[in-house]
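Replying to the earlier thread about multi-chain prediction with a worked example.

Input:
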Amino acid sequence: MEKIDPHQEELLVWLSSEDFDQREAACQQLRDYDNDTSRAALVAAIEDPNKGIRELAAEGLLSLSGERTALFLSDLLGHEDISIRNLAAETIAKLGSCSIDPMVEKASDPDKDVRKFAIDILGQIGDTAALNTVRKALDDENPNVVCSAAEALGQLGSPEAVNDLVKILNENEDARLQAAEALGKIGDQTALDALVKALDSDDPVVVFSVIDAMGNMQNAQAGPFLKKLLPGADDALKEAIIGALIKIAKYSDRTILEDLPVKQLQDCLFNVIEGDNSENKIFALEELEHWEGPSVVDKILKALDDPDEDVRNKAKDVLKSSAVSSTEKISQALLNGSDEYICNLLETIAASGNSRFVHDVMKLVYHDSPEVREEVAWTLGKIGDRNIIKALFTLAEDDVGHVRSAAIKSIGWVGDDRDVDKLLKWLDDQYIDVREACLGALVLIGGQQVIDHFRNDLNHPEIERQKMAATALGWIGEKEVVEPLITALNHPEWEVRRSAVESLGRIADKRAVDPLKVILNDDNAQVRKSAVDAVVSLEGRDALNSIAMLLEDQDRWVRFHAINVIGSIGDHSVTDRILNLLSDEDDIIRVAAAKALSGLKDERSLAVLKNIVNDSNQDVAEAASQALAALERGV
Amino acid sequence: MEITVKAEEAFHVFHLKGRLDLTSSSELKEKVKEHLEQGKVNILLNMAQVDFINSSGLGTLVSTLKEVRTANGRIALCSLAPYVQEIFEITQLSHIFDIFPGEKEAFAAFGQKKAAHTS
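Result:
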């Protein structure tokens, strides 16, 4: 006899109360007592007149430990009220594998309905531990139990049941459909012959079921048998056959679809797109990628609004190749979709680069949504037709910064000398994204007018603009920019000098070699550091003599950088000077020197490095050890 | 600039080497034009050995893109050096070109198109 907690006892009283709130509280709290008293009480509450209480009781039972709960619930499988039987069955199935033993017992119950429930539940649990019980139920005297057993065997998915199911398929008229379906689910190829034979059945329902099963088997060998049925089949049968072939194609052989009647195949692919399975939708969209025509585009356009992001992305990809031949549909869709839908569509138009859509896209320049306007700017730029430049300048005046930025970038791709004057004002925009977009557009357009503008900007009142000018001239990179950049090496602002140095290093014009060597002596360490890279960019190995003096620079970071660069050049002529730096008082310099020596591959370094492998600074000692190891491997 | 062309998979691959500037741009334009006239409209520019590109070079790439599109072809770029990548970012050309890390990736992305059905 269970000892009952006083509060649990009180809950039992509440459960019999007429007050709904008390009964509700009892169901919620009884789950805290994992004992048979709670089980019996909650099972009793499954019979409560109120549906909400019944559901709460079922939830409570699920939170109690399993097998005993299933045992208690199994008594309800023979209840006179069907809704109570169903709720009990559903709850038992949710309890999972711990319900197997009680259900195996109920599979021999004298009541045929209880046996049927037991077999249904065993199928839903899907555990092959119940396989023998379910197989045995195929011999039940009641046809409903046999049907449930065939269906359950499909859910269990065990190939061991194939022969039993084939027998049912051939001999049992009542359970033939369930057997065919189960064979399809199991997918064992040995059942193919039996299914092919069943295609000759006089019963159209059986034929449909077998066709569906053959599709589910995903076996390419089923293809020819299915195709043989196509001549003379009515539309519904054709749809079923092609639907099955689509399933086979998805997993085994896509070529199986190639010689099918176009209209039916297309309709089936459309049905798949209208369906619920995202994976199948993606497959159907992939197939439609090779089709053309307004109805195809219509379906793909619909998929752009699919709740599943993967399906929407696939639709976008497919539309990129279909967009070429579907102007009218796309024009209509641009006017009627949601903001996100229009953006997706614009993206596909941009990818197609088809100028046929220019007029439709330009109609959206004043769209309410800034996201759409931004996408319009990108799209117009990507279409790349000179006729749209006016629309892009309209978007460049937009109130929203990211719309302006997109429009200006697009002007860079489409524009030419004629647009330079109008573009310049966005170098002063309040948003940095817009200013940078303008810089990029001007670099791309290039030409004498742009060069002259940035040459003048080297003397702009604002340092930011001076720096931007020096950088822009480097990106433009034409011969005409070299002289202004050399002049800028004498600019009073160090940041402008540094930008000029970097630009000259990038352009690598020989006229800049001597001026850059001079600036290796600049007052500013950042400028000297950048000059090292620029001189090496122009002269390569020949730069060594010029930059070696910076090994003794007063600034540690210039010395550090010079050591690294010289180490990467790998010339023995500077070994002695680097070796001297191993005794530098600055740890960072000693580490850099040790690393550089491994790159120089000069055996004279070995002895000196050995002396510092036990350096008091751990980083120095480690760098020396690594350099030694590298040298011993390489010298 | 050295330009060598190889027919591979779905593309004619242009291997560019050196500086892509005003001087070399006309050579690239000419080679692309020759290919388009012969119906070889799918072009992959392998930029691994392009060590400098300026405004003129970028402009040439943009006009090449337009010409290839007009010929109903495809153009893609691959193996951009970090310096070239940087200028592609500055000018946002990375938005209008299909750019791949290497030839293999470009072939994989563009090499498997089939003929279209018409319904």
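Residues 235-251 of chain A form the longest helix (17 residues).

Feel free to reuse this layout for your own posts.
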